[in-house]
Amino acid sequence: MIGLIFGAIIISFSSIMVKLADVPPEVAGFYRLFGGGLGMTIILWNLGKLKNLTSHVWKWALLGAVFFAFDFVFWHRSIGLVGPGLSTMLANFQVIVLATVSVLLLKEKVSRPFMIAIPMALLGLYLMVGVQWDSFTSDYRLGVIFGLLAAVTYALYLLSLKYSLSRANADPLAMAAGVALITGLILGILALGQGNSFAVPNTRALLALTTLALICHATGWYLITRGIQRVRTSLVGLILLLQPTLSYIWDILLFDKPTNPVELTGVGLALLAIYLGSLKRKS
Predict the structure, then answer these.
(1) Would 77 be classed as within a structural domain?
(2) For residue 113, what pLDDT band results from cuts at 50, 70 and 90?
(3) In terms of C-beta density within 10 A (0-12 exposed, 13-18 middle, 19 or more buried), how is residue 228 classed?
C-alpha cells in the first residue's frame, strides 16, 4: 500500500512539471512518454524481464498508444489553458466515462454507487466550470473542453489496454513500457509535423522534463502497477484520488490559482464521484 500511495503522490506532480517545462504539448509528451518508456525498459532489464517485450506485446501496445497519444495531446493543451489543477481534475473524469462504457457496452450491472456517482459528477462539473462559464475567456473554455476530451481518450486507452493485456497475456509493465515508447514516437511525429522544436529552452525545462519522464512517469507508474495488485479495488480508487487532489493543491500553492467556495464544492463532489465510479462493478 505504501508504494501505491507514493506512486499516486509522485504522479500528482506530472501536470506541474508540464507547466514548468513550458514547451509545446506534443514535445512535452514526447519527452515524458519516450523517456518514461526507456526508464520502464531499464526497470524490466534490472528485473531480468526484458524478454517480456515480445513482438506480440509491441503489436498490441500499438492499439493503446493511439488513444494514449490523443489523451496527452488534449491534456497537455488543457494544462496550458486552465492550469495543472483543473486540467487534472477534468482528465480524471475518465473514471465516469469508463464506468459508463462498461455498463452500456460491456453489460456490467449498474451498482448503487455508480447510480449516485453520475449525477454527482455532473453537478461537480457544473459547479467547477458551468456556473462561471459565461465569464471565462474563449481560451479557458477551450481548455475545459480539452480536459474533458482527455478524459474520454484516456478511458478509451484504458479499455484498449485491458483488452490488449487479456489477448496478449503480457507482463503489465512490459505492455506499459511498449505503449509509452510507441506513444512517445507518435507524439514526436506530431511535433515534427507542426514544426515544433525539440530544443530544451533552459535548465528549468530540462529538470522538469527529466523529472516528468523518469520520476513521475516511469517510477510513479511502476509503483502504482506493483501496488495495484496488492490492494483491494475500493482502496485503490481512494488512494489514486491523491493525484487529482494534490495536483489541485499544488496549482494553488505554486501558481496562485484563484478559487472560490462554489468551485471548491464542485471539486469535492467530483472527487467523491470519481471514487464511487472507480469501485468495482459486478459483471
Answers:
(1) yes
(2) confident
(3) middle
Exposure letters 60-86 (e unless 16+ CB within 10 A, then b): bbbbbbbbbbbbbbbbbbbbbbbbbbb
For residue 283, tell me if it sits in a domain: no
Amino acid at 100: T
Residue among 46, 94, 48, 67 at smallest CA distance from 243: 94
The four Cα atoms 211, 217, 219, 220 give a dihedral, to 10 degrees, of 110
Helix (H, G, I), strand (E, B) or coil at 259: coil
Q: Is the Cβ–Cβ distance between 160 and 64 less than 8 Å? A: yes
> What domain count does the chain have?
1
Sole residue written with cell 451498482: 111
Residues 19 and 208: their CA atoms lie apart, in Å, by 9
pTM listed for this prediction: 0.82
With a CB cutoff of 8 Å and minimum separation 6, the contacts of 166 are none
- Judged by average pLDDT, the poorest of 109-118, 141-150, 214-223 is 109-118
Dihedral sign, Cα of residue 36, residue 171, residue 156, residue 250: negative
Instruction: With beta carbons less than 8 A apart as the criterion, state whether 26 and 187 touch.
Output: yes
Domain span at 162: 2-278
Residues in the chain: 283
